[in-house]
Write a structure and sequence with these properties.
Layout (H helix, E strand, L loop, with lengths): L1 E5 L6 H12 L2 E3 L3 H10 L5 H14 L4 H9 L6 E6 L2 H4 L4 E6 L2 H10 L9 H8 L2 H4 L10 E4 L5 H16 L2
Parallel strand pairs: 1-3, 1-4, 2-3, 4-5
Helix pairs in contact: 1-9
């Protein structure tokens, strides 16, 4: 089984994936893993803008399924996986269960400021520009159907995990 987690930045996707790994035995994977390794290898700045531009460039220039095919080479079908960075319809289609996490922009900004990824040189306006990049908006929440949607605004990671775990059990028992 592959669970895919989608949603904007700083809504708790990685926290949820890590909890599903720790408590339910899922292996955590991401479409962007080879992209991050490439950026590090090339000595490019390890920042969101680099990931967005190079990742989208590879999709546009090489072919749209480049990151999907890369992930397929890394997974073993006998194990269960959770993917914490589903951003495009073709990535969503690869998943058996799809989860959309959401919260308002202000909450996302506050979480970003408290995260290990926070860069005080990035202004609020620059950060807002990242939120509107194609990789952040390709999955329109209004027109995409998910197995489960959850607003994480007033929930800590334990509450999000508990909600998702209970609902996944219901989904997988059908």
């Amino acid at each position: 089984m592959i669970i895919g987690i989608a949603g904007p930045m700083h809504v708790g996707k990685t926290d949820l994936a890590n909890k599903l790994s720790k408590h339910e035995g899922f292996r955590v994977e991401s479409f962007a893993k080879p992209l991050k390794e490439l950026i590090k290898y090339l000595g490019l700045p390890e920042e969101r803008k680099s990931f967005q531009l190079l990742g989208q460039g590879a999709r546009d220039i090489v072919y749209p399924d480049i990151w999907i095919d890369s992930l397929k080479l890394r997974i073993n079908p006998v194990f269960d996986y959770v993917i914490d960075d589903v951003r495009y319809p073709n990535e969503l289609a690869m998943c058996d269960i799809t989860i959309r996490l959401e919260c308002d922009l202000w909450t996302q900004w506050e979480r970003y400021q408290k995260s290990s990824k926070f860069d005080p040189k990035i202004t609020h306006d620059e950060w807002l520009a990242y939120t509107s990049y194609k990789s952040e908006t390709a999955l329109d929440p209004a027109s995409t159907i998910y197995s489960l949607e959850l607003d994480t605004k007033d929930k800590d990671s334990e509450q999000v995990f508990a909600s998702v775990r209970d609902k996944i059990e219901i989904i997988t028992n059908y």
